[in-house]
Amino acid sequence: MKKFIISKKRLELSVICALICAMFVSFAHFDAACEDMRSNVLRLHIIANSDSKADQELKLKVRDAILECSTELFSGNTDLISATKTAHASIPYFNEIANNVIKENGFSYEATAGIGESYFETREYEDFTLPAGDYESLIIKLGNAKGKNWWCVVFPAVCIPTADGKLSDTIGETATKIAENPKKYVMKFKFIEIYEDLKKILKN
Question: How far apart are CA 110 and CA 118, in angstroms?
Fold first, then answer.
């Protein structure tokens, strides 16, 4: 009887260990797919001067102007490296567009465009979801850049209704399935967000 109890406990322990291992493997695969997304898209990050109604409305006008020009600008790019090079070369152009919008709307501050990494929380859009983490980004700061920000994706062109860009153009099949079917992975997206937050804390 005692041997039976010991064997039963060993079996239960083996089952628990197997389940834990399966969870880690599953998470590792999911994290790899998330990294595929992060390393193959160029985000757009526009930071408003302040949270005043006027500054927030201006932020959206700048957004519309940048998105309008970005479809054609990035149309010849096939990967993040080439898209980032195009973005770097176009910084003066982005500054000109943003500052023209600011001037046309009667504001006196200026916009500053640049390329860098931005941290984003898990973000659900109309047709897809992107996981939390650091992304290569086209960052446009308006004035003091102390207001609420707006972000989406300029490469591939998935944030422009008239564009035909798709995430599947640059990311793998598994990552595409995850991005386009987020309700199946709600908990995993949450775990990724917690994991990325912990990484941020450890970096600082």
Answer: 21
Q: Phi, psi (5° rounding) for residue 166?
A: -135, 150
In terms of pTM, does the model score above 0.70?
Answer: yes
Whole-number Å distance between alpha carbons of 175 and 161: 22
Q: How far apart are CA 126 and CA 150, in angstroms?
A: 15
pLDDT at 25: 44
As a whole number of angstroms, the longest Cα–Cα distance in the chain is 87
Whole-number Å distance between alpha carbons of 63 and 115: 16
Measured between alpha carbons, how far is 43 from 117 in angstroms, rounded to an integer?
9
Q: What is the mean pLDDT of each run of 10 residues along the chain (204 residues)?
A: 51 45 52 82 92 94 90 84 93 96 94 91 81 90 93 81 66 79 72 71 66
What residue segments make up the domains of the chain, in order of their start? 35-203
Enumerate the β-bridge partners of residue 44. Answer: 138, 152
- For 129, phi then psi, to 5°, come to -130, 140
DSSP letter string over 26-93?
A: HHHHHHHHHHHHHTT-EEEEEE-S-SSHHHHHHHHHHHHHHHHHHHHHTTT--SHHHHHHHHHHTHHH
